[in-house]
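FAQ
Q: What does a multi-component entry look like?
A: The components come first, one per line:
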Amino acid sequence: MLRIRQLQKKKQEEAEAAQMAQSHGISPVATNRVNSAHIRLQKDITELDLPRSISVQFPNPADISYFEITIKPESGYYQHGRFRFAVSVNENFPIDPPKIKCLQRIYHPNIDLEGNICLNILREDWSPALNLNSVIIGLNFLFLEPNPTDPLNKTAANVLKKTPEVFRSNVLNSMRGHYVDDGYYDNVLR
Amino acid sequence: MKVQVLEWNAVASWHWDLKVDDSGVADELCGICRVPFDGTCPSCKYPGTDCPLILGDGCTHNFHLHCILKWLEQDTSKGLCPMCRQVFVYKRIKNMGTSEELHNLQVLIEGHKAMRERENEENEFDSFEDDVRMTD
Amino acid sequence: MLSSELISSIIPTPNLSDINAGELENDISIIINWIKLFPQPIAEPTLRVKSAVKSVLKDESSQFQFTKLLNNSINENFQLEGFHMDGMNICPDELQGADLATVISRVINTKRFYDNLLISLNLNLSTSCLNLYKKNINKNFKLLIGEEVFLAKIYTYFDENFLRLNSFHDFNIILMLQFFEAIEMKNELNQILINILIKKIKFYINENFKLAWSVPILHTLNNFIEHQIYSNIDFVLKSLHLSIDMNDLIKIGYNELISLRINEIYSIIIDYPKSEISLVELNRCLNFQNSDNFDPNIEFYQRNKLVENFSDNVNKNLLNAGINTINLIKTYIKIIKSFLILDPKGVLLDKVIRPVRKYLKTRDDIINKLVLGLLNKEPELVELSRELQNTEKSFKLFKNFDELNDLNWVPDPIDALPDFKKFKINDIIQSLISIFDSKEIFIVEFTKLFGNKMINSEEDLSVILKMINLLKLRFGKNEFFNLDIMVKDFINSRSNRGMVDSTNLNCLILSHLYWSDIIETPSFTLHPSLLLTFQAYNEMYKRENFNRFLKIIPNFGTVKLSLEGKSYNVPLDKASVILMFHDNNEPVSVASISETLNMSEYFTNKILEFWVSEGILLKITPQLYASNE
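Then the predicted structure of the entire assembly, as tokens:
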């Protein structure tokens, strides 16, 4: 892997040099990278084809690199909840995956209390061949089929594995904004 | 009657000769940047010679050379094709890409290969340890 | 009708003859007796009369009472029919018919009579009583002369003699002016004189300066005002102990000229640039400030009126379907240039140009015409291409569009006001292009136009490159990436020519994605012999460019043919059709050609007819053609 790192370092140095040049008003080339992410992102956004239960909002229409999605699962443990996520896409998209965080404190085996999400296609299984649509559909799937084998919230995962009925009532309580196992959660039913 | 063509000023368009996949249709878009192959990758200005393609050899997937380079520079790519997740191998074709670019590509692919082999060895070692433990 | 005569005949007003009782009886009767002489020629009052007057007027209240009675007596006298004085009858009706000199001399005599009356009586009336007396007697004079008719006469007199006033001798002008002063009508005279001089100036301006837009006139106007107006009026006014400021007169003149020009404004601007000097002078008139009497309201009114009048005309004459787009653009340019002369700050321009901009946007061919104009392909709009060549201006364009990307951007000059926005409208190209929210549509149009020129080899590459560079200066250099690719295709193809020397085929090789606005779906297939040539070329191309191949675009390009000893340069469809007759003396059917070339029969027929008209083919039947040998 050493040689890859060397290459990356070289690239990074080049990028820094370009940035320096740009800040001195010399080279316009560096803007291309921003554009490339932007062009691909635009395509992905126009190609979004989501079920009714998912909606997308752009708080600042001039900046498509940040937006929010709301998922209202139509079945499963999380039915009736409204789960909000922030999606941000960096300049290296689609080489880098989009970054998604849950904006609420929720009780979910694959989402920790800080809103970090454990979804393979957002991490180790990301590929530029995937698009925003596939990522959002994957996220939606987490609410239909929470996955206890790859947990971020281990307590919740254990409850789901051992006593699905307790898990169900924990989810309901958490969605109402009640305490579950000494931890408080955001009301997501409003 | 004799009709003799003295001179012909023609207009033609060039196209990449892309492999057709199993369904008989050639993918027209680069799987990474989603721009047609006959156009440029996002960081190039001129299509064609300046922005060559790379044809997958193990799989049927093609990419802009510059796009696949960017992908393979990621550790997380593990040297796999972004489309089918097979180990990415490319066809060596003359005049496709500068020697520096092709060299970089080769370095990346070999780096990933070395990484995979080391992981496999570790896994084998782990399983060897497991075996040892089981025999205890 | 209720007249003062009628009222006084019923209720006689008290007058001096009514003071005949009480302690003053004696004195008053003495005065009455003396007054009874009146209006006979005035004799020196006796000492007794004088002392009687003195005793009557001892205190303020009796003075006041006396004055009132005196006024009533005077009024009665004026009202008497056949009022006599100096043996002359001056009845008001008669006076109104008389000439001005007679009226004036009689009034002056009457006035003198009353003055003498007061003097001889030595009436030391208090100021307020004196004013009461004067006011009353002047009222009577005005009544006597019939004020309105008289003033009209005066007006006519001055009007007719205005230019001779300075050297006027056969009428005693001094006397007349004294008369006005005497009967306290100085203000009225002043008003008359001002009305006359305005009329004179207005007449002069309309007579001499209407439609005179191409020559400077202000100097002439100033001369006229100074030598024809000022010198005359100044003499009159000085006689009245009044004066007028030369600059006020000039302001009057300029205001009249402004009114004329406001009425003409639309035609003046259409006449631009011939009318340029009139716009420069109009600007001077609008900004002329006479020292003291400057009235910002007038300026505001004039500027408003100018905009209003021009906009009305624009609506009526310009913004309609009958005006072609080129003329619209030309007028648009004229409006910008001329209004910036009128008002360099651009405030007026901003107002008048808005509706035109809105309308221009609705014209389907506006972009095309602008693009042609900029590229000097439209002789009527040569001005646009001249503007484009003016690269000095271009640096500050698109500041609002491109500020971040434009490396040539420089800040506003430091002396610019904080709200400096002039650059938005003072540049014609910028102004026209900014009709649209984005410059994108222009870029697309330029790209199409140059693409067509290259694909049809209509323009020299160096000319195209020069134009593109100029456009980049205006629109930003990153905007033409598509065109840059097209140009590169063109240049690469040229250098390819040497590559294949075994054939007589030159090929322009396009990166098709970037030419999609130009290349169309082919409407036919090439003749097999041409295809063969192309395939050979394609093979060579593939050998040079691994993994790339070529597709012919049959709708473009030309073939040079030798036919019966003549040479023809024709498009590929015509060449393909005639090649069907190569080495073939048999008739060929339209259907078979149409089938071989995948060409519609209608189109095939048209091409066959072309070759018939050239004498190359013979039409045997409507379905059969053969070579004409």
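Q: Is there any commentary attached?
A: Sometimes. For this entry: The mean pLDDT of chain B is 84.
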